[in-house]
From TrEMBL:
InterPro entries: DUF3048_C (IPR035328), DUF3048_N (IPR021416), YerB-like_sf (IPR023158). The lineage of its organism: Bacteria, Candidatus Uhriibacteriota. Pfam families: DUF3048 (PF11258), DUF3048_C (PF17479). Coiled coil: none annotated. The chain crosses the membrane at residues 12-32. It comes from Candidatus Uhrbacteria bacterium RIFCSPHIGHO2_01_FULL_63_20. This is DUF3048 domain-containing protein. The keyword Transmembrane applies. The keyword Membrane applies. Keywords: Membrane, Transmembrane, Transmembrane helix. It comes from the Bacteria. Residues 58-197, 226-337 form the DUF3048 domain.
Amino acid sequence: MDLVRFLKTKQGYATAMTVAVALALALFLYAFRGIIFPGQPAQGPESPSVSSAYRHPLTGLPIDAPLSSLPQVFGVMVDHSVDAWPQSGVDRAFLVIEAPVEAGIPRLEAFFHEGQQVDKIGPVRSARPYFVDWNDELDGLYAHVGGSDAALDQIGTTGTFDLNQFWNGFAYWRSTDRVAPHNTYTSTDLLGKALAHAREAGKAPTLLYGTWAFKDPSPAQVGTGVTVDFGATSYRVDWTYDGKSGTYSRRQGGLPYAMKDGGTVAADNVVVAVTKMTVIDTVGRREVKTVGEGDMILFQDGRAVRGRWKKPSQTERLRFFDEDTAEIEMNPGMTWIEVVPDAEMVSLHEPPPNS
């Protein structure tokens, strides 16, 4: 039977219609490829998952394409005394390191990068040598208001990319709603202007900092939290795991830790690092071991991983290793590091049995 006679039969007609519908559907789908209809999840670069092929080198968060160069880091010394509360901008940092200064009062170093927009950061306070070490491993533009003699000497001899408010007032402002020294602030815009001036003058550093390894989160429904007791009740820190978000919320002195604009902290990784600290003068200033290694516990995905922190030199990156000496991959997002002199300051909150 030839093709024309076959198509005139019922069987041939049905076959022809099936082929025609299939071809029409294929042409329709081709014409509308890439269009996202209401209720349809976006795919590809428009809405990358955490498993994106590219990650931001500092946060581990997905990005659409690899960066052409490492972004400049801003390391800002943030006042953490009671008189400085509530603070501004700390909740927007990709990394915060907390360690005691005089009288055991903690101080923060909050790290931002030049791709961020944070309108108010502070109050900004003075430098200490150990915070300079943590800044320099990221080639950071170090924002502070003065500092201890040892810190200022170190800045002058190690080539720290420095932005002391004493000599760079254009990058800071003083608020009128607080008294000094708890009223100095900066922003990523102002820090960016200082960076631009340094680049124009050929004084910005070549960025060579190392990056952490990141993984996709694997959050548990319930998990272990931690309390870090810096002495006074006001400075007791509680980190509580939230299984829905896979992050750790922070309480300070028994109250939710909130910024002046109401923002709160949700850390994706919390690290407690134990290191040697020695009081070196009558004021109570401390010498803190930053280079070498020591015990640590890393909290992520509701789990507590014991191991060691390691920082081979002043300019090399602080990293974390499990008890099998494998480097721990970090969750993308915010990391908060608590640095303490004694493991007795730390207590874990285990989840209820069978939870």
